[in-house]
Structures are given as C-alpha cells and as structure tokens.
Amino acid sequence: MSLRISLALAALGIAALTAAVWLGPTPLADPFANDEATRTIVWDIRFPRALTAWIVGAALGLSGAALQGLLRNPLADSGVLGLSGFAALGAVVAFAFGVALLASLAALAFALIAAFAVTTLGWSARGPASLALIGVGISSLAGGLIALALNLAPNPGALADLVNWTLGSVEARSLNDALLAGAFLLAGGALIFFAARGLQALTLGEEAAAAIGADLPRTRLLVVLGAAACAGGATAVAGVIGFVGVAAPHLVRAFAGHDPARLLLPSALAGGAILVLADMAVRLLPTDTELKLGVAAALIGGPVFALIAARLASRGGDA
Fold it and tell me: Is the whole model's pTM more than 0.85, yes or no?
C-alpha cells in the first residue's frame, strides 16, 4: 500500500510541477516554445520557484513524519524541538546586524546548534515527553533571543527584509536555492532513513524496543540531526513556513498506515505536492500584492491543526 501511495503522490507532484510551470499571471500557450520570452518565464522564473517549493515541502513533510515517529505524537514537527525556531533565529541575527547575504548559512548553522543542544540534553532522557519538553525549552529560548536581536539591532532598515522573510516565500528563487535545499534534504533524509528501523521498533514502546535490541540513543540522534538538516535547509531558502510538517504525515497516514518507517517517503512526497499547489494558488490569486506562502500555509494549516487535535482528543489521544 505504501508503495502505491508513494507512486500516486509522486505523480501528483509531477502534475503539480507541470501545472506550476504552465499557469501564472502571464498566460503561456506553449510552455515548451523556443522563444526567448517563454524560456525566461519557464526556466528562469517558474520552474526554479516550483522546484524550490517542492523540495522545501518535502523536507518539512519528511522531518515532521520522522519527529512524529520519534515522539509518538502526530502533532509534532520541527518546531516542537526548537529546530525551526533556532533556524529562524540564525536568519534574524544575520538580517538584524546587516549581513543578509549570510542569512541562509546562519539559519542552517543555528538549526544544527539546536540539534546539538537537543541531543546533548536529551541523551539520557527517558520517554518522548522528556525530549519534547527539552525542545519546548529550546524553542522558547529561540523566541526570546529573536526578540533580543530585534531590540538590539543596529540596522533598523533591515527589519523590513526580516519581516518578509519570516512570512515565508519561494518568490524569485533560483536553481541555486533549490540545489541548496535539495542538498540538505538528501543529507537529512539519509540520516532519517537510517533510523527507520529504530522508529519502527518505537511503536512497541521504549522498553519493548530496547528489549528487542533497538539502539534508542542512536535513533534519537539520527532523527534529530536529520530533521535539523531538513528544516534548516528549508528555512534557509524559504523562510518560516509552518504546518506542512504536521499536515503532510496526517493526510497520508490513513493510506500508508501507522508504521512510521513506511510513512516517511509518502510524507515527503505529500509535503512537496502540497507546497507546490499552495504556491501556485498564491501566484494565481487576483491580489495587488502577492500573498506570502507562509501566510497561506498558516491560514490553511491552522484549522487543519485544530481539527487534528480535536480528532485526537475525541479518540483519547490515539493517533
């Protein structure tokens, strides 16, 4: 079943990418025409943007599925462990202090710092609740440090750029941006898939998983580092985009099953397709100013998050 749903989601992603290249404010009779104007619109503007959206969505969907399996909580994503918060902090520091060109690298570096802190503090933690609490503390620290950086920023003119970045967008992204996010998706994805058997064992509970020989500290380390690479790369390229990491695994769980290892690939493919479609929608909306992708994700994802939480509450917390 998971193979069939993965193939279907891959086909959906290809269809979404094709539609994103074809459709836009400037109509194209033939997106594969050989004239210079069409080549510029398709290959310099629309395709890099759509590809970046797919990679960012896949990274968020994959990291969300992995962290949900690790914490055994279907509402978990990279924000729960403070990974997205610290990635945002890195970019905020770069923008606030006038080195915007280093914002992407700073976001990646700070996401890895958060991963190091989580794994170091949580090395001896027992149970997913302890690890989640450590993440909540790190996320709160990131929020406080962001406020401090804004307060002390010597370059107030950079705050407009910072606001745009925190709203999340893949507008005007190039193939280099897609390659950067893709490199970290591949690196983080490799770490997460190496932890797949450990995630599978965790469905039995930590004591049972340890009893059958699962290396739980190694599983935590691989998942947290992998999620940090995915979330850091996504945030570095597209800014802050929430809810995809929660929604994508939830949407495919009914088809791919509740095995977290089998949920990883479908969640990545679903996240990619979701974000391409969402970005295509914001491009096609008849507004004077283009709606930011992160805003659209929040407007759609907020109610979805509430519905998931209500559904879990009605089932007594069962995923």
Answer: yes
